[in-house]
Amino acid sequence: MTDPTPDYTPPQVWTWNRNNGGQFASINRPVAGATHDKPLPVGRHPLQLYSLGTPNGIKVTVMLEELLALGHVGAEYDAWLIRINEGEQFGSGFVAANPNSKIPALVDRSGPEPVRVFESGAILVYLAEKFGGAFLPTGGAERAECLSWLFWQMGSAPFLGGGFGHFYAYAPTKQEYPIDRYAMEVKRQLDVLDRLLAERPYLAGGHYTIADMAAWPWYGALAKGQLYGAGEFLSVHEYRHVIRWADEIAQRPAAQRGRKVNRTWGEPSSQLHERHDASDFDTKTQDKVAS
Q1: Is 45:68 a contact under the CB 8 Å cutoff?
Q2: What are the residues facing 91 on neighbouring strands?
Q3: Which residues of 174-183 are buried (b: 16+ CB within 10 A; e: fewer)?
């Protein structure tokens, strides 16, 4: 099939068309900084997370729940909901926590001065090191492998989300070239993972690490047909080793809890809009709130 979109000749100087951008046109802009004054709320726990239950947000809530499952009481946290579709990431308090205005952002208030950490991969490394190297090998080839796959995920997922996901699911028009280009790359990434996981149980080797926590919300969901309604289009059933890995992680209680935090869509029982206590999973999911 030939792309029916007429050829586009870029102008000499780009200008911002506020009406262009599809589903996210209202929050995409070519400048940074705050659009309004709004301080961030602060709860009673040492760690304050400001996020949404997207794949990038899930990485951190899974890590926090895994740390708590290991008995690290200092990993108790408040998870505050940031509704990015409503522009809450451009409030002055959030911009102070993350000048890039992307979720998630973490503020560690356990010391004499608050420490801000942004970018999901950086948050995972920070938490691992804060809690004695939990889920991060201490040295040698295993640590290098873990960090390599962590940064592989950080570099690869934009092609999946901002590339394939945008043009396949969110762009105002369907265009053959970008969908074909990014579908090819996403399938290549899945093949990279499938070949790796045919030889080892987890990304870094024999142990579950922050590399798995980073990749699972993106590539685990993709392989299970849960992203962009694109499972059949991408023939995700072919990647059986990725599916095995995704299913194993999905059985972990901490992963199940982490996936619910700051989630605002799906089954009401899967949504815990904000998390301020471990008991919230039993009493404050949306099915409980509604009843």
Answers
A1: no
A2: 36
A3: eeeebbeebb
Please tell me the predicted confidence (pLDDT) of residue 17. Answer: 86
Written as six digits, the tokens of 169 are 């699911």
Answer yes or no: are the C-beta atoms of 211 and 219 closer than 8 Å: no
With a CB cutoff of 8 Å and minimum separation 6, the contacts of 182 are 159, 160, 163, 164, 167, 168
User: What amino acid is encoded at 45 in this protein?
Assistant: H
**Count of other CB atoms within 10 angstroms of residue 227:** 24
105-108 and 115-118: which strand pairing? antiparallel
Q: Indicate yes or no: pTM above 0.90.
A: yes
3-state secondary structure 1-57: CCCCCCCCCCCCCCCCCCCCCHHHCCCCCCCCCCCECCCCCCCCCCEEEEECCCHHH
Q: Provide the 3-class DSSP secondary structure of residue 279.
A: coil
Residues in the chain with pLDDT values less than 70 = 1-5, 21-22
Q: Give me the residues paired with residue 273 across strands.
A: none
Which of the 8 DSSP states describes residue 204? T
d(C-alpha 218, C-alpha 172), whole Å: 23
